[in-house]
UniProtKB/TrEMBL annotation:
EC number: 3.1.3.48
Keywords, ordered alphabetically: Hydrolase, Protein phosphatase
Annotated active site: 17, 23, 136
Phosphotyrosine protein phosphatase I domain residues: 11-162
Family (UniProt): Belongs to the low molecular weight phosphotyrosine protein phosphatase family.
Protein's name according to its UniProt entry: protein-tyrosine-phosphatase
SMART domains named among the record's database cross-references: LMWPc
Amino acid sequence: MTRQNQDKEKISLLFICLGNICRSPAAHAIMQRDVDDAGLTDRFSIDSAGIGPWHVGSLPDRRMRQHGARRGLDVSHIARQFDAGRDFRSFDYIVVMDDDNYRTITKMATTDADRRKVIKMADYLKDHHGAQSVPDPYYGDGADFELALDLIEDGCSHLLQAINGKEDNLAMD
């Protein structure tokens, strides 16, 4: 996945979770904050989507919005469902929150190039040794939402560093 004309094209990231109301909109908000703070807003396009249609058109889960707001995040993305045809064409990186998300999204890929776009957030968790995924906090309590946010902040920070470290010949394959 090598970017050509990187001075003119944005790096596009799509965050995926099951319903697009907890983890992926939080990742969207966190990465947007990190990109903005780094002065890279004009270089990135960030979005999120869910695998299933259950929450399309809805705001993120109230608990995620509340926990995110305590960290200064605006977690207000309107949920949408992943569209394999459009999203594989439109995004450079499709970042999934867990192994189930990874299996589901990679099965929708029709080419090896599309499969290579799908990466796991867990691969960028450097401060949470042993974490294999970002667990879904939906059926949990406040501590589960805080853990999800901690993991996503860790992953987004290191993903952004990885992308910035490869700007000269942007390829994460």
